[in-house]
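Progress against Task 2.4 (sequence-to-structure conversion) is shown through the following example record, which the project officer requested during the mid-term review.
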Amino acid sequence: MATPRNTNSPVGGKGRSVTSDLGQRIAKARGQGPDGANASSASKQGDLNGLGRAARLGTEFIAAVLVGAGLGYGLDLLFKTTPWLMLIMLLVGFGAGILNVVRAAAQINAANPAPLDADLGPDEYDEDELN
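Structure tokens generated for the chain above:
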């Protein structure tokens, strides 16, 4: 007569730990090897497509402008200087938004360098040939 298998046991039927088997199955589902390395470099977390890049840059800019305007509005209510501090902080938020967009774009460009065979525009030899 067969004995019933204990399902609460940490060891599976073949002598393997249930958690290690689960870890291997999760890694396989995520597209990783059993050692945790990614199967493809295209599935990096920092890799954004064009729409994702545009959404990030737009969000960076809008958030800075809104924070500046909101802070200025609050200071206007506090000091009763309507609308001057809001206008000043709106301009400060605009400047901070542009700075954030430039930094984010530089970070995205550094993470995704151009291919070696990419045409990056004319160089000094191309300009000489035009004249």
